[in-house]
Amino acid sequence: MSVRDTQTGVGLIEVMVALLLLTVAVLGYSALQVQAIKATNESFERTQSLVMMRNIAEKIHANPDSISIYETQINLSTNSTPNKKCGLDGQAVTTAAFCTPAELARAESFYIKTDLANYDFEVQMHPCPNTGGSGASAASNIMFSYCLISAWGLTTPTIGEDEDVDCLTNRVSENNVVTEAGGRYHPKSTCMMMEI
């Protein structure tokens, strides 16, 4: 017999091995694509969140006397239309539309929450758990500051111990001694925090 007679074509086993290798390569590439898309979406959400939080922080910094009104209005679960729109609705500002700082804070908070609802983001404003001191308000704690928290997906913009829901961890103290500073992100959270 010659060499030509022993090899008449590609065997079924060789074809199956080639298909197996091709399948493994395609599945690996597909898994890589899924991870790349997930990372891109997360990056996009973080970028959008950061832009929105900076916008809110700039409004609060421009009207610091009404920071407690911003906190109250941003944390409301319902978004009620303010009595005065302060020219923020795109209409021409007349002398009747001039607003006090408190009215401006209510109007800006309303439009902030309306805009965020269009992007499926939730935002809340809470006292930061890691700012030191033992005071519960700006008047009793020189280190007091607010955290602006933005969350998406299954995470809520809250501070707590439920790692499946809350964004940040609580501050833990016993007898005015801080045992855990708090303010860390929970591992499963999809959120961002900005101290203002």
TrEMBL record:
<keyword id="KW-0472">Membrane</keyword>
<keyword id="KW-0812">Transmembrane</keyword>
<feature type="transmembrane region" description="Helical">
    <location>
        <begin position="12"/>
        <end position="32"/>
    </location>
</feature>
<keyword id="KW-1133">Transmembrane helix</keyword>
<dbReference type="Pfam" id="PF22150">
    <property type="entry name" value="Tt1218-like"/>
</dbReference>
<dbReference type="InterPro" id="IPR013362">
    <property type="entry name" value="Pilus_4_PilV"/>
</dbReference>
<protein>
    <recommendedName>
        <fullName>Type IV pilin Tt1218-like domain-containing protein</fullName>
    </recommendedName>
</protein>
<feature type="domain" description="Type IV pilin Tt1218-like">
    <location>
        <begin position="31"/>
        <end position="106"/>
    </location>
</feature>
<dbReference type="InterPro" id="IPR054402">
    <property type="entry name" value="Tt1218-like_dom"/>
</dbReference>
